[in-house]
Amino acid sequence: MEDWKKELSTLSTGRGGEKVKKCGKCGKPLRDPKFDLCYDCAKKSRPDIGAPREGLKPDYLQGGYFDENGYLKERYIIKGGDADSIAKRLGLETPAMTNNQLRRFYGHVRAAENRLRMTNNFSPVYLDLKKLEPLVAEAKGKRKIPDIFYDFMTKNLDSVKTKEDFIEGFMEHFQAIVGFFTFHHPKK
Predict the structure, then answer these.
(1) Is residue 51 part of a domain?
(2) Digitized pLDDT (tens) for each residue of the chain, 188 residues in all
(3) Contact predicate 109/174, CB 8 Å
(4) Is 121 part of a structural domain of the chain?
(5) In a domain? residue 60
(6) Together in a domain, 111 and 176
(7) Considering only CA atoms, which of 164, 186, 175 is closest in space to residue 86?
(8) pTM score, two decimals?
(9) What is the Cα–Cα distance from 164 to 171, expressed in whole angstroms?
(10) What ranges in the chain are assigned the alpha helix state H?
(11) Mind listing the pLDDT tens digit for each residue in 19-49?
(12) The domain containing residue 174 runs over which residues?
């Protein structure tokens, strides 16, 4: 007997006299009866929504890709380093990165690398890299990529100033992220 009373208390009368389900917390009418909470109450109950997101490490790319001897810093390519942690987060954040999206951007960067190796002229390749910025911004605006990938791309595209930065720094780092992403998220 208590079940029908409980069910009746969660309903209100909508237009035309039909019964409309109410939010279990605040009592507002729900647009879709398959949910128990309204959008606002559901948003408040999930700590990951609306919470400040964790970005890249504060010291990420400070001082560039290379150490004082001119070698690529290990942290950008090793397991447990920046590439590994970024790759893990790409598949866990909302929206999750798909393998297709990651390979799409990696393909653009590889094409620029091939052009540089064939022509040995960095100026037009640099412009090709800068053209990636609006593509990444569009994907972020359409919620196709996670914020961490947007941050990664913009920070790296800003850090590439020379042919060596691009080939020996950014390309190696990006390749490590693609490899670790496939390792951590093989089904994406």
Answers:
(1) no
(2) 566 555 555 555 555 556 788 888 888 888 888 888 887 887 776 544 444 456 789 999 999 999 999 999 999 999 999 999 999 999 999 899 999 999 999 999 999 999 999 999 999 999 999 999 999 999 999 999 999 999 999 999 999 999 999 999 999 999 999 999 999 998 86
(3) yes
(4) yes
(5) no
(6) yes
(7) 175
(8) 0.71
(9) 10
(10) 2-9, 39-45, 82-92, 99-119, 122-130, 132-141, 147-159, 163-164, 171-184
(11) 788 888 888 888 888 888 887 887 776 544 4
(12) 74-184
- Number of structural domains (the chain) is 2
Contact 15, 21 (CB under 8 A): no
Evaluate whether 75 touches 61 at the Cβ level (below 8 Å): no
- Give the span between the Cα atoms of 79 and 74, in whole angstroms: 9
- 173 and 87 part of one domain: yes
In a domain, 115, yes or no: yes
13 and 80 part of one domain: no
For residue 170, which of 126, 119, 120 has the smallest C-alpha distance? Answer: 126
